Description:
By secondary structure, the protein is mainly alpha-helical. It has 18 helices and no strands. It is globular and about 60 Å long. The C terminus is likely disordered.
Amino acid sequence: MPAAIDRSKLFVASCTSLLVTSLSFGIRAGLLTTWTNQFHLTQQEIGVITSTAFWGFPLAIVIGGLIVDIIGMKKLLVGAFIFHLLGIILTITATGFWPLFISTLLIGMGNGTVEAACNPLVASLYTDNKTTKLNHFHLWFPGGIVIGTLIVRFLGHVDAGGFFTNWQFLVGLMLIPTAVYGYLFLRLAFPVTERVSSGISTATMYKSLLKPLFLLMLVLMLGTAITELFTGQWIDVLLKNVSDNALLLLTIETGIMVLGRAFAGPIVHRLSPGGMLLTSAVLAFIGLYILGHYTGNTLFVGAIVFGMGVCYFWPTMLGFVSENLPETGAVGLNFMGGAGMFAVSLYLIFMGGYYDQLLTGKSPAEAGQSIINVTSVIPAVLTVAFAILYFTRRGKAPKGVAAH
C-alpha cells in the first residue's frame, strides 16, 4: 500500500460516516411515534416512510458498487456527504408525509453511498483481516443507534426554543458528524479497490456474481437483513404497548451488538465466519421467540439474546463473501448490502399494512408481538441454511487469507 495512504485515518473517517448512517436509524426509530401524532400519519404511512431509507440504500449502494472502481471511493463519499446534508436539512423542515418521505430517501441514499465506498475501502485497507475489520467498522452501526436512542430518550423533552422543536433539534445533531466525515475524506488520499490492485478484470468480476455460492449468500442476506434491521427499526412501535421501556430494549440490543463486534477478532478465528453465522441464526430465533411470547423483565433477556444473535450477521456476511469470493470485488459486496436493504424495505411496507389489519381484531400489544412471531420464522429457516453451509464448507480455507 502506498506510503501516502494513511489507513488508520481512513478507517476513522469511515467509522464516522457510518455513525451518521446509524444515528439516522436510532433517532428516527425514537421519533416515529412523534411524527405519527404530529402529522396524523397511519402505521402504513410510517411503514412507507421508514421503508424509503431501506430502498434508497440499495439504490445507492448498487449504483455506487457499479461505478466505484471507475470514479474512485473518494468521489463517492463526497456524494454521500451531499445526500446526508440535504436529507437532514429537509427532515428538519418537514411538514408532513411527503417531506419526510423525500428526506428519508435522501438519507437512505447517503447511507447506501457510504457503504458502497466504505465496505470495499475497509476490505482494501485490511486484506489480511477482512472479517474482523469489517466487524470493527460495522460496530458503529449499532453504536450510533445506541447513541441515537439515548439522545431521544434523554434529550427528547428538551425545549430547543426558537425555530426548532425538540425533535428538529435532535435531527440537527446529525449535522455534526456529517461535517466531520466530509472534512476528513476531502483531505485524505485513497487507495484503489482490492479487485483493481489484484489485477482481476471487470469481466471476471461480473462472471463471479453468477457463482452458486454467491447467489446463495445473496438470498441468505435477505433474511439476515430483515431479522436485524426490521426488528431494530420497529421495536419501539411493536413493543411500546407491551413494555414501558421499548426504546431501552433497542438500546440494550444494539449495545450488545457493539460489544460483540468490538471483540469479533477472537470469535472469527475460533468459529470461522460460517460458524458465526450459524450461531447467530440460532440466537436470533431464540431472542425473537422471547420478545414475541413474554412480557415484563423477561423482554430484557430477549433483547440481550437477540442482540447476540444479530450482532455478526451483516459484517460477517460481507466478510464471508470478501474472503471466499474476492473476485466479486466491490460489486459483490455492494450487491449483498443492496439486496439486504431492499428486502427490508419491502418487508416494512408489508408489515406496516399487516399491523394495521391486526389492530382491527387485536390489542396493540398483541398485534406487535404477532409481528415479531411471524418474523421469527426467518432466523429459523436461516438456522437450517447456515448449518448446511457450515458443515459442507468446514475446513476450506478462504481465498487469499490464511485459514482460521
